[in-house]
């Protein structure tokens, strides 16, 4: 049995038309017909029922489709492994990471890791924290770096990093030495609070804010980088993890406002794993030895 026959069969099953199958595979339509006939002869059953310009899977074809996909999947996975070896890699490490973490701590850490571990092939999937647990559970990735802990008992969650949350506003252009102190109550009541840019702390924080400032106005903004842009444009203010605004604070584009009230929550970063394989252990050890402060 030729793998080309199987690939042609799977594409034809998905397209329902031999002409479109030929276009997808960049072959002639007669080639598609030949592949299907050879495969049907090999397995001893008709895989398609033909009607005018369309082809529909027969009952036997529907049963055979899952087997064909599985065989092609094994083949493609084996070729990926061989390609990995040919490039000098010995192992793979698949990481899922939230956009917020990817925009702060990951680039520097990842650069250090791949430099020290040149034989590990690293792939990075950017997923929302709410989706990272599922990706680890389904074994689509080996490790998840998330702003939320896993809920499933069979997954392991470790606290990697705890960051302070601070109140930030746009710079008013006045020198910090001569500027008067910022009135927090006036700041809160005269600006939109840009909320829900972090999945971990906003619900509780918002409850406390509304208790202290009943007239507070809120605007949900789901991404931190958009929140920062809105703040610099004067649209509102927000409570953000310090790591996410470190550069803007240093460059003077944002101001860290002293918060005199109840202690603000922490923004946590978690490592989520399903197995304790050597590649996961090595990466986790590298992360836990890194100083985030």
TrEMBL record:
Claim: Transcription is one of the keywords in the record: yes
Q: Which organism does this record belong to?
A: Radiobacillus deserti
Keywords attached to this entry: DNA-binding, Transcription, Transcription regulation
**Which residues are in the HTH lysR-type domain?**
1-58
Q: Which family does it belong to?
A: Belongs to the LysR transcriptional regulatory family.
Q: Does the keyword Endoplasmic reticulum apply?
A: no
Q: Name one Pfam family in it.
A: LysR_substrate
The protein in question is named LysR family transcriptional regulator
Which molecular function term from Gene Ontology is one that the record holds? transcription cis-regulatory region binding
| Source organism superkingdom | Bacteria
